[in-house]
Please model this.
Amino acid sequence: MNHLEPLLRGINEKTLVSLETLTEPRMTKKSDAGDPNPFTGRLRKRTRMDCYLGSNYAKEVNERREREGKPADFVSKPRAWGKAIEATPLIEHKEELYLEYLVDQVHQVNYEVDGFIVPESLVEPWLVDGSKSSRQGLENQAIIRTAKLANVVDVQIQ
Model:
């Protein structure tokens, strides 16, 4: 059991937290010239952010739609993978736990190679851009992320 799991299982309503994750970012395998990515298996992304656990995605999108003067008629699609553990922000998939969160504000992003912080400009050519939802119809999108619980370094309830 992950040391954060008991705390997270106790969160059953929308809760603001400070979250730190250490993940392997999506990268290309080769450069445009065909050179292999020198950072494969070595690069990690450390992110410190404020986010909400236990939020309702469709409700969040519709509240934002109302603020932007749009009809609150967004309906989310069923989860594509994993099974939500009821009354928690946790997802179970292939015997692993994941944490689902709504990003509020990102405070810091560092890239680390072999445990050492490197400039983003060094790894940026190899990074794959994240996708945005084309269904929300929002200027200020609700960003929902899911991280493997093993990649969650710290959670502090605010």
